Amino acid sequence: MSAILTFPWPRLHGFCVGVFRRLDVPEEDARLAADVLSAADRRGIDSHGVARLRTYVDLLSAGRINPRPRLKVVRETESTATVDGDNGLGLVIGPRSNQIAMDKAARAGTGWVAVCNTNHFGIAGYYVLKALERDMIGWAMTNSSRGVAPLWGGERMLGTNPIAIGFPAGKQPPIVLDMATSAVAYGKVEMSMRKGQRIPLGWAIDRDGAPTTDPSAMLEGGALLPLGSDREHGGHKGYGLALAVDVLSAVLSGANWGPFAPPFAIRQSLPERSVGKGIGHFFGAMRVDAFRDPEEFKTQIDDLVRTLRATRPAPGTQGPLIPGDPERAAEQEREKTGIPLLPAVVEDLRQVSRQTGVPLE
Amino acid sequence: MSAILTFPWPRLHGFCVGVFRRLDVPEEDARLAADVLSAADRRGIDSHGVARLRTYVDLLSAGRINPRPRLKVVRETESTATVDGDNGLGLVIGPRSNQIAMDKAARAGTGWVAVCNTNHFGIAGYYVLKALERDMIGWAMTNSSRGVAPLWGGERMLGTNPIAIGFPAGKQPPIVLDMATSAVAYGKVEMSMRKGQRIPLGWAIDRDGAPTTDPSAMLEGGALLPLGSDREHGGHKGYGLALAVDVLSAVLSGANWGPFAPPFAIRQSLPERSVGKGIGHFFGAMRVDAFRDPEEFKTQIDDLVRTLRATRPAPGTQGPLIPGDPERAAEQEREKTGIPLLPAVVEDLRQVSRQTGVPLE
Question: Scanning every residue of chain B, which has its alpha carbon at the shortest distance from the alpha carbon of A77?
């Protein structure tokens, strides 16, 4: 196995901008899309950064994603909007729709935007960080193609449907929750398979719907389990959350829901039935000062964060983290050392470079 | 052990109204409070119905809850309000604040209300059912006194902090999610203890912060674990959700957060520090037609519900349920057969009857 290569994030960002430009994405949109991918790489969420560039390129090249979408607000009230993303990049439609949510919040106290006819939007955490910049509480969700079984189901029916929420702090770092509603990410099962390791019970079922510790049994026709895993440990709760994300993102907006969300992959076949347009996102922004004096709020968040950090640690641990800590640590580290990329990812990027004529190094 | 007694719910409802009236709660408020308690008993959530009446009575009698609160909106925008509940019954302040959220939504598309200076509000599901009656998507959350350890924490720092969300359907029953963010309810650990049974790993830790299967080790100074239980199965996610509920309900409103939320019990000592007023709730209402034609939305929800019910069942199961199914089944059953009460609960109610002079039977 060849060595891990590292790249300063601005170089990868520039590469992404160049590639998107070459695929007819307008300059401003290309920068936005690169921002979202970079945020994932910088924050240590490797599966959602440039590792995915190849798939965006494939889908754009094949005409499956529209490089020049005309985002349309198809319905709105003072605090809401429904957006049709014209089959654009989720990396562009996502940030623009999130912007609408924040602008609504600036006027009405809160803003909530459901989006259809869009595609994979990167990390949900990116969107709530934008809200934090404006002293707002941010929410972001998306549905995705099926990979997760409902509790007591024997097949994939829902996506890993993530939820992100961010709360601004004062002197402490903000609280940034960004979580899939499945027990574990698909990528972790793939990783165990590559390493030849078993997976823990509670992560997945096989193609017959039975619990499995064999990663290939999940990958080949099995399914991930929802957060909580089984009935005894609250698997109905993770399933319920995944379903709520599906409804808010897809049913409310007019996108494809449940097992009919189209895959983010060029080679996977499309679902048997179309029940809407593209996949769906859901964004929310809440002005803190719509509820409470922001300085008071932040002082209390600081106190809460310090209180949680002072929790007596469980044996063998350093004590609780604050949601967002691991991503912040990765960001600090990678700002200095660059983004480490697996050889397979570098090879993908080199191929994209050859295909588009945009130099990588 | 004496037999389970059953009571028609209207009789228990009438008893609750009489008891609250005798404790100086105004007629209309007494009815509202009885409505919320009855909803729990009718829907099979025994721990949150008349089984709790005794505690409400104790706290009202001791002057710890204000029977005649003057609810005050202390801040508002078009889509938000912050309510000070004047230390009233959560069973009264909750429904009135939820009403404000729905009225805001009627005008601005959505309405979001954070509430401080309030007390235990019954089942979160009650509030979203009220939103469904108005063709709205309903949200309800509350914080509660500490019982749950953050992931990697060795002590209780957060409440079981429930989240409820409800989505209206057309011909199918609505989707009603009502879940604690802990792996399991406190009551289930108590029940195992009474039955002399072990509890599954992943439910709780003991007073040293170590995983335990002994219910008494949790009850005597241990803690519940968050949904997901351990790091490998996503315990950081359940912890993150519990924290988000705490911030939305308590920090945003000015209530006591985290380990400082006051207990719902007359005999438990108050937390060492006060950082706000009472506990906090958070309500949301979203008009479906603010996003999409309601008939279209409901047709799609019906289709989604049918699609999920058609999931291939996991071995040994009947296939997935829809969130709200168990509560609906209990409601149908209990409408016919009455509310079954444990002998200890009946004894509690008889004592309340003697204390207040309101006849039970």
Answer: B109
Under 8 Å between Cβ of A204 and A218: yes
Separation CA B158–CA B145 (nearest Å) = 7
Query: Can you give the pLDDT at residue B187?
Result: 87
A138 vs chain B: nearest CA distance in angstroms? 11
pLDDT of residue A269: 84
Entry field: residues in chain A: 361
- Which residues have a Cβ under 8 Å from the Cβ of B352 and sit 6 or more positions away? B19, B53, B54, B57, B358, B360
Contacts of residue A52, defined as CB under 8 A and 6 or more positions apart, other chains included, come to A37, A120, A122, A264
Name the pLDDT band for A2 (thresholds 50, 70, 90): low
pLDDT band at residue A187, thresholds of 50, 70 and 90?
Answer: confident
Closest CA to A170 of A280, A289, A329, A302: A302
Cα separation, A359 vs B17, whole angstroms: 76
Burial of A47 (0-12, 13-18, 19+ CB in 10 A): middle
What does each C-alpha distance from A199 to A9, A204, A205, B84 come to in angstroms? 32, 8, 11, 49
Name residues 264-283 of chain A within 8 A of B (Cβ): 275-276
Beta bridge partners of A76: A81
CB-nearest partner of A152 from B109, B286, B317: B317
- CB distance B104 to B111 below 8 Å: yes
The rounded distance, in Å, linking the Cα atoms of B333 and B280 is: 33
This model of the complex carries an ipTM of 0.98
With cut-offs at 50, 70 and 90, classify the pLDDT of residue A339: very high
How many other CB atoms are there within 10 angstroms of residue A148's CB atom? Answer: 26
Residue among B178, B160, B162 at smallest CA distance from B226: B160
Q: Give every CB contact of residue B264 below 8 A, 6+ residues apart in sequence.
A: B52, B55, B59, B119, B120, B144, B145
Sole residue written with tokens 């901008």: A17
Our measurement of the distance from residue B58's CA atom to the centroid of its chain's CA atoms, rounded to an integer in Å, reads: 19
pLDDT in tens, A94-146: 999 999 999 999 999 999 999 999 999 999 999 999 999 999 999 999 999 99
- Tens-digit pLDDT profile for residues A72-81: 999 999 999 9
Cβ of A240 within 8 Å of Cβ of B209? The answer is: no
What gap in Å lies between CA A243 and CA B124, rounded to an integer? 18
Q: Which residues of chain B have pLDDT under 70?
A: 1-2
Q: Name the DSSP letter for residue A340.
A: E
- Chain B residues with CB under 8 Å of A287 CB are 77, 80
Smallest Cβ distance to B233: which of A155, A183, A276? A183
Q: For B31-148, where are the E strands, in sequence order?
A: 72-76, 80-84, 110-118, 136-142
8 Å CB contact between A74 and A83? yes
| Minimal Cβ distance to B227: which of A234, A287, A311 | A234
Query: Which of chain B's residues have a Cβ under 8 Å away from the Cβ of A292?
Result: 75, 82, 114, 251-254
Regarding pTM above 0.95, the answer is yes
* Cα A215 from Cα A222, distance rounded (Å): 9
Q: How far is CA A204 from the centre of its chain?
A: 21
Residue A263 has pLDDT above 60, yes or no: yes
Q: Which of A54-63, A266-275, B56-65, B212-221 has the lowest mean pLDDT?
A: A266-275
